[in-house]
Amino acid sequence: MRYFIIAGEASGDLHASNLMRELFKEDPEAKFCFLGGDLMLAQAHGGKMVKHYRDMAFMGIIAVLRNAKTVLKNLSDCKQAIVDFQPDVLILVDYPSFNLRMARFVKEHLSAKVYFYISPKIWAWKEYRIKEIKRYVDKMFTIFPFETAFYRKHDYQVEYVGNPTIDSVYTRPNQQQTFTEFCIENQLPDKPIIAILAGSRKQEIVGCLPRMVDAGLRFPDYQVVIAGAPGIEADLYNSVLKGRNVSVVFGKTYELLQQSKAAVVNSGTATLETALVGTPEVVVYHVPMGRIGYFVKEVVVRVKFVSLVNIVAERLIVKELLAHLFTVNNIASELDLILNNSTYRQTMLQNYSIIKEALGEPGTAERAAKKMVSSLLLQENN
């Protein structure tokens, strides 16, 4: 069968690549065409990458407006690629503003099925999108247990397949690597590490990284090491850091987390990855306009927390510093607790078990692929 897949950012590239690997196992005749990244390309079996996610990852209304021509061209190019490819199914990975437009286009112009793998976070905000999902999406494969109840409330049946972050973390490489081996391999000094995960988009890195790094630098007995994001050039980090004495390590995020004493993490999937690896963390989130933005967030966003760790646990496990609370002083205060208060640190680590129990066992991509292929074959035979 023919699979057209859209992933608009780094985490989507990872999860979609695992799904493609499992789809090919279930359907050895699979043909792929996609918008995504290098990880998807590695699983494409000769399939075509229409566009890389780094040319699509615009965050926030201002960035979208500034890059309006590019955004419109991406939409146009994607539509044409879908028409040219004539897929049996369109598989959408999160990235709702773009992907829901593609879902509508396919349902209005083609006969292909539309599957969503990794639901848009409409349980947090923009709940009105449920109308588009019910109208244009044939099947939704969710990755958080609480999403099933949310969609049931809207009379829309979904299938929970597990969480792909569990798979990624449990199968990560170099799990037996020692701290000394990691430092030698990455040319780092023999000092304990504070990890910085600033996000995968340029806007996030530019807006958040300086404060995150400056907080870490307040601990002279530690070295600050940044997890370089896929698709982001080293020159961007150099321009933002402006000579600060820190290191950047690319392609080793899980290894870095495993060897770190603490992490400062920009809100997103990385907060969940950090918890599953077992590294104490403080979560930050930039909200434009500071206090005003924070107030708007309180009114618009429908969940109590912003980090996936706290959302899944349904309780406060890791500190969240948002908007005007996202300051160097506040980050440093939380790092001090994590690094120097053993009771505080151990409580956080023990609470991480709540996350692991809630999300279930590995095998997410395999379960999703089996369900997708069997559903498509059933449709084909009817």
TrEMBL record:
> What EC class does the entry list?
transferase
Gene Ontology MF term list = lipid-A-disaccharide synthase activity; phospholipid binding
Catalytic activity reads: a lipid X + a UDP-2-N,3-O-bis[(3R)-3-hydroxyacyl]-alpha-D-glucosamine = a lipid A disaccharide + UDP + H(+)
Q: Name one GO cellular component term.
A: membrane
Q: Provide this UniProt record's keywords sorted from A to Z.
A: Glycosyltransferase, Lipid A biosynthesis, Lipid biosynthesis, Lipid metabolism, Transferase
**Which biological process terms from the Gene Ontology are attached to this UniProt entry?**
lipid A biosynthetic process
InterPro entries per the record?
Answer: Glyco_trans_19
The record's EC number reads 2.4.1.182
Q: Which PANTHER family match?
A: LIPID-A-DISACCHARIDE SYNTHASE, LIPID-A-DISACCHARIDE SYNTHASE, MITOCHONDRIAL-RELATED
Protein purpose: Condensation of UDP-2,3-diacylglucosamine and 2,3-diacylglucosamine-1-phosphate to form lipid A disaccharide, a precursor of lipid A, a phosphorylated glycolipid that anchors the lipopolysaccharide to the outer membrane of the cell.
Q: What is this protein called?
A: Lipid-A-disaccharide synthase
Source organism per UniProt: Paludibacter propionicigenes (strain DSM 17365 / JCM 13257 / WB4)
At the highest ranks, the source species' classification is: Bacteria, Pseudomonadati, Bacteroidota, Bacteroidia, Bacteroidales
